[in-house]
Design goal:
heterotrimer; A mainly alpha; B alpha+beta; C mainly alpha; B: seven-stranded mixed β-sheet; 17 helices; disordered N terminus; C: MetI-like fold
């Protein structure tokens, strides 16, 4: 167990190294010039050249990559070339909305999707099953921004129940914080619920056909304990796996959701940065997100051993 | 169901949901906070090294100027008490008014002023004109300083008080010592608002707080002149790049003032009893089709003229501002309509029905044989996107082979600076627009310059245009200026420095409980109040 | 959203993958087929309709989808403009119909490309330990960058062409297929008959051809349909953020991106492409579901 954990942790290091290299080289060869953007509309070409030089954008790849890695290892993600603010600071300012959005989405998803999946599996072949499957297929057929605008239109503009946009820090009270997040969370959950419900259904069906479940049933254990004690416990492993893997697509969805609801999160930060070619910010954010993803999945791997003692490494 | 009914209906047993719906009330935070949506993201605060309009608008709150133009574009004393000028317009002496302090408590002295002016003169066109004739810029004492010139310069006060970037903002000496080509990162000024750097979230919000020690002038505030009286303790800029979100937020009262609502949602906003909508700046904007004069085919004036023959300003303007005919005007001119020197003389090529056939012939005559025309379009900016789409259609009509390059504004910014041949990373055409306030005369009008390599992107090179601009600088009175402007307009059309795509106005919208919003080429925050 | 995420799970859930496909019975009558596989039928039929629209777009009463007419902008749906006109006076009906081409082309291209590349990478890593160690680390690295971010970053590099969109999305999808195939290979290698074949000195290509490919085909086909659906949505999202197909091309994502600022005042501009996109993705997902049930005997035998 311990060696397994150590191995898994060690395995994340090359992954992170590869991510770092991919991200840096990708953006290095990108066209688009931050110097020109800083200079503004009325600047002359000579101005732009001088700004580029003063930013050090004219130096070779290896030098800039080496410097960057060294600084990252020292906990410094660099400075935005537009705002002169440190990237760590900028991410710090925006991490709370994004994490709030994602954590609430995860909670909502699990609360909704797992019962849906269990119900569908228990009533396999009935209208309940078909309904759940239909709802879930529709769930990821409708693009997240369409869901978002619909939600905003109905619940914010027509019914005036929730704010259309923005974010209130949790320090200003749980109520205001939740109120701003309700619509984005529901929006982002739509597709994720669909996914988790399907996986839960599929794995439950798998487990329900296993011998020990049949035995339990034969012994006269009633339906509910069979479903929730025996089956669900065993279905937990794949469901957790999908949740771990789903974090990546959740981040993708968060980018769009944050745009639609004007939430000042890391997702919007990175899209803005990419469109403006703010290299240090892009690199810092992608690295941060990848780190988050790797961390979550490391946690998932380690959770396996808790849920399924049969797994030995 | 309105919020309150909802609250009442769920009051019992649903306190959690009640709490969810309440924050809109809590967020209002009283009448001392203004929530403003600017035209674009505020990514820096340096209106000397950078020239983005949004940066300038923010900087005008934080930094003060020696002089400031009023709504008639006449420079009035602001940080200065007054000035003396010699009869030959060669010696300008200024005295600062007492009591000026920076946000960090330091007194404003002539050392700060001179350092600031020196940095500004490196970057600004008018500043460069001053530099070219400068013998000395010297402090007489802590409160007064003097320009000594070797040639007369009549437009000194306008240069110091003009509203287009680079603005002659006065910063503490230590900040003004920054390389003029590097952005400053210390935002201490002496203006009526302080910038709250700690709460700044670029791409999302920028916070300004009232500077209590600001010595407000006794005159009424008028654009950059007079008393800059702040009625708010706090101004929150919220960046909402998505127009749909901003529309909804204004309707819901989550924001107070939206600088540039897109024209299509204006009818919707006008129908809302709680919202005022009005033209933001009567000086408006001039759309621009910019051609690269360095490379074929647009290095041939006949090809540029062919484009002008086919250029249909009505198409451009409807695409940019929509159906409302009050919002745009045909503009057979390079200058801002409604100003004293405005002229349409020489602009015949843009008038009347479009001459596609003639344009095709002219293209053939110039030897154009279907080479690819690289059209760089910034698709993330509504105005340039609309202009680009119309141009693609228009060029196709006259038989040009268009290569439509969809880029973002940042990439267009980089691309247009390249002088390489269009096939090797350069460009043929891009679009932008100029604030009408910057096109009133040649002084703030970078895009009009035709000085070749040193000119703005596209690098038009016409000694004739340059000579006529020189005449304007030398003009002693309004009549002489008018004459010079007519000559510049004619020469510019003859040479086709760039293609004006029309004159258009933009709206601003604010909640009805906000009063004191005025028309200007920038948002004027002083004098605005919330009830 | 991508159901493609399901794939690694399938491997985890069912270490013993099917070693034989269900016996193919003669499906003589269409009725029988519809009865047995209603989702395949429904999904397939809908998809066929969209394919028809894509192929015959010019003959379905459309005008030039890119011809602008600013004087007739933002008209509501009418006899002249069936789906209304957009902010440049272009006909939304024509644009949406032509947009079908882009969406399907992107979806199919990404599905096919990522299947082929993923299959190749998966097979190689499944059989060669040292390659496996390196390639799978790279795949892990790619997978730990959220696919939309990766695609946006790639689009920032290239621009200008729907083919680049295909490449960008493919790069993001390949690791998933590769992992799926590798998982299948690793599981199958443990199977007695494969072990026997290896022991008896059968060459690797033959093992792949005889034992591995037939068994990876079914999950890959299912996977490919889901990738197709996910690619169509990703394309729309990329355009929505302003990093997708060039705006001169009337793709559904572009039409929505252009119309989204007006969703309160002129909802028709966003509504029709959103409807078409949702229906197409729905059709593909339905087809994928049906294929999964039909090709996966674990589930199929209980239906």
């Amino acid at each position: 167990m311990l060696t397994y954990a150590a191995k898994r942790v060690a395995a994340t290091i090359p992954v992170m190294a590869i991510v770092a290299f991919l991200v840096f080289s990708l953006l290095y060869i990108a066209p688009g010039d931050p110097a020109a953007i800083i200079a503004g509309d009325q600047a002359t070409p000579a101005d732009v050249d001088r700004i580029r030089e003063s930013l050090g954008l004219d130096r070779p790849f290896v030098v800039r990559f080496a410097e960057w890695v060294w600084r990252v290892l020292n906990g410094d993600l660099g400075q935005s070339i537009f705002t002169n603010l440190s990237v760590t600071h900028m991410i710090g300012q925006r991490i709370q909305p994004t994490v709030s959005l994602m954590v609430l989405t995860l909670i909502l998803t699990i609360c909704v999707a797992v019962p849906m999946g269990v119900a569908a599996a228990a009533k396999q072949g009935t209208w309940i099953d078909r309904l759940v499957m239909m709802v879930s297929v529709s769930g990821f057929s409708v693009p997240v921004f369409v869901v978002g605008y619909l939600m905003a239109y109905v619940f914010a503009l027509q019914l005036d129940l929730f704010p259309v946009q923005g974010y209130t820090p949790i320090a200003n009270g749980i109520g205001p914080w939740l109120s701003n997040l309700v619509l984005p969370v529901v929006t982002l959950s739509a597709a994720f619920v669909a996914l988790i419900a399907r996986v839960t259904r599929a794995t439950m069906l798998e487990v329900l056909s296993q011998d020990y479940v049949r035995t339990a049933r034969a012994k006269g254990v009633s339906q509910r304990p069979v479903l929730f004690v025996h089956a669900l416990k065993n279905a937990a492993v794949p469901v957790i796996t999908v949740i771990g893997l789903g974090v990546a697509s959740l981040i993708g969805g968060a980018v769009v959701t944050e745009s639609v609801f004007a939430i000042p999160g890391v997702g919007r930060l990175i899209v803005d940065a990419i469109l403006r070619r703010d290299y240090p910010v892009i690199q810092g954010c992608v690295l941060m997100f990848s780190f988050l993803y790797v961390l979550v999945n490391l946690g998932v791997d380690l959770l396996y051993t808790v849920f399924d003692p049969r797994i030995r490494y | 169901m309105k919020r309150r009914d909802f609250l009442a209906a769920t009051a019992a047993g649903a306190t959690a949901i009640g709490a969810l719906a309440a924050p809109q009330l809590a967020a209002a935070q009283g009448s001392r906070v203004l929530r403003f949506v600017p035209q674009a993201n505020l990514s820096s605060m340096d209106a000397v090294a950078g020239t983005q309009y949004v940066v300038r608008n923010a900087a005008l709150m934080v930094w003060d100027t020696l002089y400031g133009v009023n709504s008639q574009l006449e420079p009035q004393p602001q940080m200065c008490e007054g000035h003396q000028v010699s009869d030959d317009f060669k010696t300008w002496t200024f005295k600062l008014r007492p009591g000026l302090t920076f946000h960090d408590g330091g007194k404003v002295t002539t050392r700060d002023v001179l350092a600031s002016l020196k940095r500004w003169m490196v970057r600004d066109t008018m500043g460069q004109v001053i530099t070219a004739r400068l013998d000395a810029l010297e402090a007489l004492d802590d409160q007064s300083f003097r320009f000594r010139l070797n040639k007369p310069f009549t437009k000194m006060l306008f240069a110091l008080g003009k509203n287009n970037a680079p603005v002659a903002l006065i910063m503490p000496e230590r900040i003004a010592a920054t390389d003029p080509f590097k952005l400053i990162s210390d935002y201490v000024g002496s203006g009526p608002m302080k910038f709250n750097k700690a709460e700044w979230v670029p791409g999302s919000k920028a916070i300004f707080e009232k500077f209590a020690e600001y010595p407000v002038r006794s005159e009424a505030g008028d654009w950059l002149s007079g008393g800059k009286r702040m009625m708010f303790d706090r101004i929150e800029w919220q960046i909402l790049p998505d127009a749909a979100t901003a529309t909804a937020a204004l309707q819901n009262g989550e924001i107070d003032w939206w600088e540039q609502p897109i024209p299509d949602v204006v009818p919707l906003l006008k129908r809302n009893a709680n919202i005022n909508v009005d033209i933001s700046d009567p000086l408006g904007n001039i759309g621009s089709l910019r051609m690269n004069h360095l490379h074929p085919p647009f290095n041939d004036v006949r090809v540029r003229r062919a484009v002008m023959m086919a250029l249909n300003q009505q198409d451009y303007m409807q695409a940019v501002v929509g159906d409302d005919a009050k919002l745009w005007k045909l503009l057979p001119s390079f200058f801002t309509p409604g100003t004293p020197v405005y002229t349409e003389e020489g602009g015949d090529i843009l008038k009347g029905p479009r001459r596609y056939e003639e344009a095709r012939k002219l293209l053939a005559e110039a030897g154009y044989k279907g080479e690819k025309i690289i059209l760089c379009v910034a698709t993330d900016v509504a105005i340039t996107k609309a202009e680009g789409d119309v141009t693609a259609d228009m060029l196709a009509k006259i038989g040009m082979n268009v290569d439509y390059q969809a880029l973002d504004w940042g990439t267009v910014g980089a691309r247009r600076a390249k002088k390489d041949p269009p096939g090797q990373g350069g460009w043929h055409i891009f679009h932008t627009w100029h604030a009408g306030a910057d096109c009133i005369n040649p002084a703030p009008y970078t895009a009009l310059d035709a000085g070749g390599d040193k000119a703005w992107f596209g690098w038009p090179n016409s000694p004739e245009v340059q000579a006529r601009i020189g005449d304007w600088y030398a003009a002693a009175d309004l009549e002489a200026e008018k004459k010079a402007i007519v000559a510049i307009n004619k020469a510019s059309f003859d040479y086709v420095t760039y293609g004006p795509t029309g004159f258009f106005l933009q709206y601003q919208a604010w909640r009805k409980n906000i009063s004191g919003v005025v028309k200007a080429p920038f948002p004027v925050f002083w004098g605005v109040q919330k009830t | 959203m991508s159901t493609t995420l399901l794939s690694p799970v399938d491997v985890a859930v069912a270490p013993a993958l099917p070693d034989v496909l269900p016996p193919r019975r003669a499906r003589g009558r269409v009725g029988m087929f519809i009865h047995r596989h209603p989702t395949i039928f429904a999904g397939g039929l809908m998809l066929a309709v969209f394919l028809f629209i894509a192929v015959f777009a010019p003959y379905l009463g459309t005008a030039d989808p890119t011809a602008i007419a600013p004087a007739r902008r933002t008209r509501p749906p009418s006899e002249l403009f069936w789906f209304g006109s957009d902010m440049l006076g272009r006909d939304v009906y024509s644009r949406v119909l032509y947009g079908t081409r882009i969406s399907l082309a992107v979806g199919f291209s990404v599905a096919i490309l990522s299947s082929i590349i993923g299959l190749f990478i998966g097979l190689v890593s499944g059989f060669t330990r040292w390659v496996d160690a390196i390639v799978m680390r790279i795949m892990d690295g790619l997978m730990s960058i959220p696919s939309i971010l990766l695609a946006i970053a790639l689009m920032a590099l290239t621009r200008g062409d729907w083919k680049n969109v295909v490449v960008a999305i493919t790069v993001a999808e390949v690791p998933r297929v590769a992992r799926l195939v590798r998982g299948v290979v690793l599981t199958l290698r443990e199977q007695p008959y494969v072990e026997a074949a290896v022991a008896s000195g059968t060459r690797v290509p033959k093992i792949i051809w005889k034992h591995i490919l037939p068994n990876t085909l079914a999950p890959i086909i299912v996977q490919a349909t889901f990738i197709c659906a996910s690619a169509m949505i990703t394309e729309a999202i990329l355009s929505f953020i302003g990093a997708g197909t060039p705006p001169t091309i009337p793709s559904w994502g572009n039409i929505m991106a252009e119309g989204r600022a007006l969703w309160q005042v002129k909802p028709h501009i966003v509504f029709f492409p959103a409807l078409f996109l949702s229906l197409t993705v729905f059709a593909v997902n339905l087809l994928g579901d049906g294929l999964r049930d039909a090709l996966d005997p674990r589930l199929a035998k209980r239906i």
